[in-house]
Amino acid sequence: MPYPVLQPGKVAGANGCALAVMAKAPRPGKVKTRLSPPLTPQQSSALNICFIQDTTENICQVTQAIKSAGVVAYTPVGDEAAFDGLLPSGFLLLGQRGEGFGERLLYACEDLFSCGFSAVCLIDSDSPTMPQQALLQAVESLSREGDRMVLGGSDDGGYYLIGLKRLHRRLFEQIDWSTDRVFSQTLDRAREITLEIELLPTWYVVDDAATLERLQQELSAPPGAGYDARHTRAYLERTC
Prior knowledge:
The chain is α/β, with parallel strands linked by helices. Helix content is about 35%, strand content about 20%. The chain contains 6 helices and 7 strands. The protein has helices at about 40-65, 100-115, 130-145, 180-190, 210-220, 230-240, and strands at about 15-25, 70-75, 90-95, 120-125, 150-155, 160-165, 195-205. A 7-stranded mixed β-sheet has the order 3-2-1-4-6-5-7, sandwiched between helices. β1, α1 and β2 form a beta-alpha-beta unit. The chain is globular, with a radius of gyration of 17 Å.
């Protein structure tokens, strides 16, 4: 069954915190291209599907524990059918807009706030073992009085989650996207506008052969702080 698509500016019962995964439609040759090689384009796309399934299942469990809602902010618009059957029941879709990555993040925040959400977390789709406790901490922090930014840094210098209670355009300006300066520059922008900052535990994104190997090692070890990414584990056991 298709998932409801949010219409920016139209409040449709949305409330609480939006936990929105930034995702591309999982098509071979369009996603996880830096994992090919060692994987084929078809394998990279299949792994990307597993990442989306695990991340959204993690979020679904959070929505059952604390007032929040699961969303996938997707691109390209018109490719909604690519997500059919991949997401938990109750998830919503939101089409991405904007040219560069910074614009897409900014407009996703703007559109989600315009749909009636009281807070927004934008989450990457490349961290399938992201700790559930980090998501819970983000939602809890954004439910408290006072304005703030919640930021979960990744050890490549970027971030896997940014959470806001209000739209602050400055946080997405003068950022060298896709570099190891993204996290530090985002902190600089927050300090410029005297915005309170709460940091989440550092995690990692899977976007090359080295981090894929790290993921395999994590999922083959005894359970730790990371989420039990069952779809990803099963696929890697079959494929790698």
